[in-house]
Amino acid sequence: MSSTTTGHRPSGWVVGLAYFAGSMMVLSGLFGALSGIAAIFRNDVYVFRGDYVFKWDLTAWGWVHLAIGVLIFLAGLAVFAAQAWGRAVGIVLAVLSAVANFLFLPYYPLWSVLIIVLNVLVIWALTMYNRRAGGSAAQ
């Protein structure tokens, strides 16, 4: 990660959180894209459990997860490149991914909970940047 325009070097925590967030976003994006591809091509990969208000076609869920996954992956690369927009977009996409996985709970409960936790960690890491810590790697 690069230093800010003021010449201050970012603190180790800021740089560490930037790498953590970027890594988790790339990982989460890959997971989302792969689960989306699986749902698109094989409707019997996931089994619907119980009666749920948000019961959608599995192919539609596949496209949702694929799109969000690719966007999160790209935003994670932007965080690695110290792009300020990558941080903001990453937070928004992590929230969308968490909501999508909440709605996907009856299809794959354990996986959905795991991805929701991963998204919460990404949101935490991306919101922990601050200028008082010696600069921000995402600026």
Overview in brief:
The protein has helices at residues 12-41, 58-80, 84-103, 109-127.
Structure write-up:
With 139 residues, this protein is mainly alpha-helical. The chain has a domain of 87 residues. The protein is 66% helix and 0% strand. The chain has four helices and no strands.
What is the fold's blueprint, element by element?
Elements: H1 12-41, H2 58-80, H3 84-103, H4 109-127
User: What class would the helix/strand composition place it in?
Assistant: mainly alpha
Q: Beta-strand percentage? A: under 5%
Q: How many strand elements?
A: 0
Instruction: Please give the count of helices.
Output: 4
Evaluate the radius of gyration.
17 Å
Largest sheet: none
Q: Would you tell me the overall average pLDDT?
A: 79
Query: How far from one another are the termini?
Result: 10 Å
Order of helices and strands: HHHH
Secondary structure: helix percent: 55-70%
Shape: elongated
Low-confidence stretches: 131-139
